[in-house]
Amino acid sequence: MSSNNNQINIPEAKEAMERFKMECASEVGVNLKQGYNGDLTSRQAGSVGGQMVKRMIESYEKNMK
Fold it and tell me: Full-prediction pTM beyond 0.85?
């Protein structure tokens, strides 16, 4: 039996992560739509992921203080 550690099994967490992704995409000027976004360039997808990581690190650092 294989398991995928990249899946979010809690519906509320999945919804929150989806909202977070949409917020970050908006911040970097990438137009995401619900569902499939395979038409994004690598640069656009990387910008969204990078913004997500940046905000998570900022949140972690803020909570350390």
Answer: no
- pLDDT for residue 65: 78
Q: How far is CA 54 from CA 1, 27, 39, 59, in A?
A: 34, 12, 24, 9
Look at residue 60 and tell me whether its pLDDT is greater than 80: yes
Q: How far is CA 29 from CA 15, 22, 25, 60, in A?
A: 21, 10, 6, 24
Report the C-alpha gap between 45 and 32 in whole angstroms: 9
Q: Decide if 28 contacts 51 (C-beta within 8 A).
A: yes
